[in-house]
Amino acid sequence: MNFIERINAILHDEMPDQVPFAPYDNLMPRGSFERELRNRGMGLCTRISTIGASMPNVTIEQRADGDTMLNIYHTPDGDVSTRTKSGLGRINDAQVVEIEGMIKDVDDYDPVIFMLEDTVFSVDNSLYYDTVRDLGSDGIVRDYALDFEAAPYGAVRRYFGEINNLERWVYAQMDHPDHFAALLEAQTRRDERRLAMMVYSPAEFLGLGWLEGIWSPAQFKKYELPFYQKWVSYFQSKSKICALHCDATKSMRGYKDLIAQVGFKVIEAYTPPPVGELSLAEVRRAWGEDTVIWVNFPETIFYSGYEVTNQYTIDLLHSDAPGDHLVISFTEMGLWGALNDETERIFKTGTLAVMDAIEEHGKVPIVSP
């Protein structure tokens, strides 16, 4: 089998010849090393969005303000603004950080809600077809069903400032519960309009959620579980395959049984110990034999050298025998392959150790020693 045949077998409950190795494409620097790995059977997971969005009744003004960029959104219900600054860190692979969100006080809710209701979606399927053509048999294309992959409850964080700073978002729920509820309802309506269009995406494989583990399982159960159950069931009825991006690590124990209630076909970005708290065998018992577990390989193992990394991979493969619903991937890697000569050496040595182990011990069905 080539890579695309192998990954499609995994996704359709058929027997592949070996466990696929499928890093995110943005975590595998292009060049001779990457080409060597693709020649050996590694494939890339490329994530795209075929849906665009516009707000026909909103005017956006941008202007430099000192060392920041001020973005002003003019709506019939009032104006709101964001402020960004370059060089502080990475968001979506760009060195730009939003240091001031749209919602700063209670008067800002109405303009933001207007913007959500005003959003109009459009479709451009050429991006999917062009990407499939460029990858050939060396990769799979996954379409974003949701912006930022997040369900509405998590998505509204971005209106309160930098996405990883939860303070204003948390206080908003307590200080202005009615306004927050209206905002969440508007976000849900917006997202559901988008999701209704996704059934027409030419992509069979969809990213439909993001579990970060930074709010409680109780909140996940209240706000996100019903949303995911509704839409996973809908897309499954339309022969789509839905993935949950689950990069929670030290809090997985509280979520694993809730995740099992949704019915996602693919759970990706799960990270085993020593970074994550739950072993592959534990999550397999929780999520079932037919769930595709798309493992994020813990890059910290790379720092122990080739032999340790190779043996870790072998042990990981054997822990999930027969391996017919397992994918090995890089989804959260910070090395980025070549930040400097030393990280490039560590990255290449570790990646080769993983590739060698999959070739030698990843033939399906895997037989436990």
Task: Tell me briefly what this model is.
This protein has 12 helices and 13 strands. By secondary structure, it is of the alpha/beta class. It folds into 2 domains: 3-54 and 119-361, TIM Barrel; 56-102.
Please summarize the sheet with the most strands: 7 strands, parallel
**Measured distance between first and last alpha carbons:** 25 Å
Mean pLDDT: 93
The helicity comes to: 25-40%
Number of strands: 13
* Proportion of residues in β-strands: 15-25%
What's the CATH first level of the largest domain? Alpha Beta
Which CATH architecture of the largest domain is right?
Alpha-Beta Barrel
What is the H-and-E element order?
HHEEEEEEHEHEHHHEHEHEHEHEH
Number of domains: 2
Tell me the quaternary state. Answer: single chain
The whole-angstrom Rg is 21 Å
CATH fold naming of the largest domain? TIM Barrel
Number of helices: 12
Give structural notes.
The chain has 369 residues and is α/β, with parallel strands linked by helices. The protein has 2 domains: 3-54 and 119-361, TIM Barrel, CATH 3.20.20; 56-102. Helices cover 39% and strands 22% of the residues. It is built from 12 helices and 13 strands. The strands form 3 sheets. It has a 7-stranded parallel β-sheet with strand order 1-8-9-10-11-12-13. A hairpin with a 2-residue loop joins strand 4 and strand 5 (78-91). Helix 3 (109-118) runs parallel beside helix 7, helix 6 (167-175) crosses helix 7 and helix 8 packs parallel to helix 9. It is globular. 40% of the residues are buried.
